[in-house]
Amino acid sequence: MLLHTIKEVREQIKEWKKQGLTVGLVPTMGALHNGHKSLIEKSVEKCDKTVVSVFVNPIQFCPGEDLDKYPRTLDADNKLCDEIGADIVFAPNPKEMYGEGHILSNDFLTYVIPPYFYTDKLCGKSRVGHFDGVCTVVNKLFNIVQPDFAFFGKKDMQQLIILKKMVQDLNIPVEIIPCPIVREESGLALSSRNKYLTEQGKINALALSKLLFNIKACYNKGVVDTKYLGETAYSFLNDNHSLEYLEFRDKDTLEEKTIADDNTVVFIAARVENVRLIDNIELR
Amino acid sequence: MLLHTIKEVREQIKEWKKQGLTVGLVPTMGALHNGHKSLIEKSVEKCDKTVVSVFVNPIQFCPGEDLDKYPRTLDADNKLCDEIGADIVFAPNPKEMYGEGHILSNDFLTYVIPPYFYTDKLCGKSRVGHFDGVCTVVNKLFNIVQPDFAFFGKKDMQQLIILKKMVQDLNIPVEIIPCPIVREESGLALSSRNKYLTEQGKINALALSKLLFNIKACYNKGVVDTKYLGETAYSFLNDNHSLEYLEFRDKDTLEEKTIADDNTVVFIAARVENVRLIDNIELR
Question: What are phi and psi of B270, to 5 degrees?
């Protein structure tokens, strides 16, 4: 069922809640791929009813980012959700979410702002305000859908950690279910932005996952010095990669690790063909 | 029923929701007076179940404010709530609300930040960060109690306007019920901070309400020039009053009014015996 308004969604949810049914939410920006598919499948399996939101959220894009050219494939997304067994596809337009004529700045809009310690690093360093936009829209979606469970991919690990922190800090009555990264057979982590890559670009992009797998293999052999683990990784990169960061951080607090342990996540961001790609791996 | 933990409140609320009962929330900082009493009475009348929260919220106090000496009278508050017919008094300690050892700054805590246009004026000008703390704690209370209705006094009119904006911006499924200011027979608006005043101070404080009533009387006679209305008001003030602001603003958007109309609220803040007092009046 494709719905475009908050009112329609609320009415349907109210009906379900009356019947005592559990509701799962899978927030997406559309352009759904097998990564999203795995989230939706998990929700359909775990919850009585599943809502997939499809909303390219303007306030999480920074100036100069790809808001306008971000892939929009609602017909295909809706069809996929239907096939998997989602009950509602909620696809509002920006006006429905933020009101008409609203200036989408913190001068005129209430924002949910995650802690600076979590946002001043990794992707937050180059994407200033990005996670403010993410937390605000996810908070809104939580209030609209009132799900029991919400499903997020570990591909966006910093986002996942920040949303878990938001739920904890604001006592939000939603359980966040983290879901594994889905990769192509090659190892490339699925991303809607992979569509921007040429075939050669996709090959070059493999360095990111290979490098992460290698770090994990070294860790499993007993190497724990993150400086050493990081330096070894650079040999996977060449002129086709513009590295933004490669960092070892705690999976809950995002504190930096000098000695890797089972709570360590290795985060990488790099541009390939000027497409910004991210990936990560848990050492546990 | 006096409860101190989030878990206990949630369990009770869950039970009520299962039975299809409506829940009203009256958020307070305790030191309850007849103003609070009127809010609780309204909730008891309107809702099947009423929760009164009593929590002196540290993050809405600014440095140098009266956090430590703010009156705490939980036994009396609990008794009053009981008499009026409230079902739960929720009195958590700061550790229950914000976790142990947490640094209560936006470095480590997710905040709900109302728009700057609403907070850079009136009380927000001198109480920097105050409304961030208010919105954050009210958001938390909404998530813990999940009320159908929440009751706030018009005494804190800027707070009320900001909370209504928060509910709208974040699609919070709670209806805010604004309640009239309760005044002593003298006209003095009730406030927990009135306890800081001497008898003479309370007499001096009457200038605030008198001045507001006079402005409304002038408006009702057809005077709409807010500059003129404001200047007339100054004659009520003397050396016993240290005026912080006297402003004419829109009741929804907080925009300044040069010509008063039925949507205008007159806001005043002044110190008497160094106690900061606020009051306001709707011209409608």
Answer: -155, 155
